Amino acid sequence: MIVDIIEKNVLFSLTPHPLQEKLCDQLNLEPGSLEVRRFPDGESYLRVLTSVKGANCVILADLTHPDTKYLALLFLFETLRELGARSIGLVAPYLCYMRQDRRFEEGEAVTSRVFAQSLSLHIDWLITVDPHLHRYQSLDEIYSIPTQVVQGAPALADWLRGQNGLLLVGPDAESEQWVSSIAQASNHPYVIGTKQRLGDRRVEVTLPDISAYNGRKAVIIDDVISSGRTIGECVRALKAQGTEAILCAAVHGIFAEASDTYLLGTGLQTLVTTNTVPHSSNEIDVSELLVPPVRHFLNQVEGERR
Ligand SMILES: O=P(O)(O)OC[C@H]1O[C@@H](O)[C@H](O)[C@@H]1O
């Protein structure tokens, strides 16, 4: 008997995401349908409404505020498996729990490692954009599944390319990896500041003397904006040196505790982010950067089947 192999690739997302439709269109994925709600006691209800028997499932997840979303995601992964999904991959454009990458104080949980170990138990592959790799060299140090990292820098460089008279500003040593590659690709000079973190919402940023770049617009570049204090401090330091035209472009705009409102109050003229995290500042689309790695993993699974 000859049995036809029917390839079925379905994309699910627990919450609306700006990349959902773009990825379905560009990768020819079927949009999966879910019923998700909360019971009065706060527990999650989840029902998969699309048939997934034999299908490769791609889950697109906004992992900001992960503690409120992670259990529902686990329910989704395990239910898809029970319903016969052939493979389950996760596209987490923003990968949470990457910043606590060591035990800074005795007794602290190294949450990046615990989270990675837990996620690795439920999925076959993971794709993310610019994870906060600071003390880890690669995701392989904490994830035991195949992973691919997409760099947001080319998308930011494209946005900056046609603009003249800019000075790119990285708030701290960590940001140099992104800022230097964006500066090179977009042909703008850059400077890097020094940051001292004094608490969750308290940082101090010092910038080098930028008088040689008088008259240029400053564009602060960072990977993630959470409390917004790093960017806010950068704005303050730029203003102290007489720079008034200040823009900010970041990969992941989490904007915790309405820090977008706080930032616009600091005198920032423009604030743009990529669409890794849904927000009104999402001017830079990264969908095209995500297509090749998703295709890679889907082809790999299909290759194994044949
Ligand atoms: O200052 P907030 O916005 O809270 O945190 C974001 C900053 O903290 C760092 O880990 C990031 O690279 C970024 O510079």
Automatic annotation (TrEMBL):
GO terms for molecular function: kinase activity; magnesium ion binding; ribose phosphate diphosphokinase activity. Residues 11-119 form the Ribose-phosphate pyrophosphokinase N-terminal domain. The keyword Ribosomal protein does not apply. The keyword Transferase applies. It comes from the Bacteria. GO terms for biological process: 5-phosphoribose 1-diphosphate biosynthetic process; purine nucleotide biosynthetic process. Gene3D superfamilies: 3.40.50.2020. Coiled coil: none annotated. This is Ribose-phosphate pyrophosphokinase. It comes from Marinobacter profundi. The lineage of its organism: Bacteria, Pseudomonadati, Pseudomonadota, Gammaproteobacteria, Pseudomonadales.
